[in-house]
Each structure stands twice: as structure tokens, then as C-alpha cells.
Hints:
This protein is an alpha/beta fold. 41% of the residues lie in helices and 17% in strands.
Amino acid sequence: MAATAVEWLDRPVPAVRLLDQTRLPGEEAYVTATDVETLVDAITRLVVRGAPALGAVGALGVALALAQGSRENWGEARRLREIGQLREARPTAVNLAWGVDRMLPLIPGGFEAVLAEARRVLIEDETANRTLSALGVDWLLERSPRRPLRVLTHCNTGSLATTGWGTALGIVRELHARGLLDVVHVDETRPLLQGSRLTAWELRADGIDHVVQVDSAAPGAIMRGLVDVAVIGADRIAANGDTANKVGSVGLALACADAGVPFVVAAPWSTVDLATPDGAAIVIEERAAEEVLSLHGVPAAPPGSRVFNPAFDITPARLIDAVVTERGVVEPKVRADMKAVHHAAVHHNH
């Protein structure tokens, strides 16, 4: 795999080390956050991104807050404020809040208890990614007769977006490992190019054949029969199966529906938000105009142009053929009920 996006450092002081994804593919550099302010800034600037990776950062960030608070003699009010800022740094991606919330009951037990649980989050995420990747490939092979498969993916969903292996890109890796992958169509993913900068970088490191295409070429590639399946990740999946993902995803789903090509969402169960009934209830983060008005510092629009820059869009469940998690595969077009999967898993565990 290409790199480790998130890791914990014990020395010289406790810190969260992040691969700076704003500098890829040109430079492999790292941001070492020894305080919550630096970590929140890194999250906001997309030094680290991807829902599962953000879940890990949220968990580790609580441990970081306890370590910093101990050094600086914080009171409870300051600690709650710092952790609250961490939790709200990216509002659409549910995993960040999930990672923070998982740590909160352990705070009375102290720093070591929180750090141990945060480390478990990292391990569990990679395990879940490998499991869902195998389940996703099995589902695909039953429904897509062509061999090997041509896959289209959007944004970045690999080891850079997770703690290891990947979600949608994990399915790509699993197909490659089984010798069943032809080529990957990589959407560049405007405005910040997570596909061309990050996904292509990961695929090149793994020796996986791929082509980079502008986002607006993707629906045409699907309609022309150049793609056998589109696989994306998710930043939040509502209880009814509606999915928030990087802006541009819903256009792929519409093209797939018209062309009869499977449209698959791959994400760990931590991305499923049963408290959110549907996509209309998901807050869509809007980002700075500068991301659209310039490209690598070069103006891309006249000065003063107004900008609409949502980071995500919502794909309705009716356009999604499969939602793949480590708990199994749901087919929203047949029955879009994520709560049923949850109840089945709880019953099985008991």
C-alpha cells in the first residue's frame, strides 16, 4: 500500500502524525500535531481526509487533548471546548464525531484508557475494510459477467482515506489480488483533485493499471460501455440508504442507472448514521471559494465571481445497487433499510 495516513507517536511528546495529503503527489511530507489546534487545522485544510481516517483522527484527537490538557493544566471547561472543536471540524463526515464520541465515556479512566481504545479503532478499521472488500467483490462477481472488470471510482478511498487497505479502493485492490481487474477509471475529482493526486498515486504504487479522467468525462465513459461497475466511498449513510459522498457522485449514479451498470457504495459500518433518517437531513459542508477560483495558484475564473462549492452531494438510495459494509451487503433498490442490518448484527452478536 502507498502510505500510512494516520499514526500515533509517543515521543518526544504525544502526537498525531499525519501524511500531508495537500502536498501529494509532489512531496511526501508530514504534519505532527502535538496540540488540538494544530490537529483541527490539519482536518480543516484536508491534510487528512476520508471518512474512516477522520474517525481514527477523532479518536486519537481525544487522547491528544488529554495529553495536552495534562501538560497545560486545563480545567474541564477547556477540555470540553477543545474536544468539541475537534468533533465539529468536518460536519458532513459522521466518522469524525463517531470517533470522538466513542472515546468520551473512557475519559474518566484517564489518558492510557483512551489511547488504548483509540488504537483499537485503527485496527478495527483496517480489518473492516478488508472484510467489506471481499464481500463487495463477491457481490460484484455474481452480477458482472465480464472478466476482467473495468472499474470507475471517484475521489480517494484507499489507504490515504482510511487506516489501511481502503473501502472502494479496497474493492479495487481485492479484484487486483484475485487477478480479476482490467483497468481503473480515476475521476480527477474537482476542485481539489483527490482522484488524480491521491488515488492515481496509490494505484501507481501498487502497480495497478489506471487512466485519469476529468469528472465530466465519467458519465460518458459509463454510457459508452467502457465501465463495468462504479464504486465509491461514503462520508455518511442515512438510515434509508441515502449516501453523502464527494461532490460529483450523484452524476455517476444517474449514468449507471441509465446504462444498467452497478453503482456500489463501500464504507465501514461506522459511516452509517442511523440517527439520520434520510439524505435531506445531512448537513452539506460548503468550502472556500478559493478552491474553485484558482488551481495551484493560477486564476481559473474572473475576479469577484460568485462560487457554489459544496464538498459533497447526496445520492438517493433508489440509485444505489449495493451498500457494502463489513456487516454485509444491502441492496437499497430492493430494500433501503440500514436499521435492519444493525438489528441483525446485534441479534447475531448476542
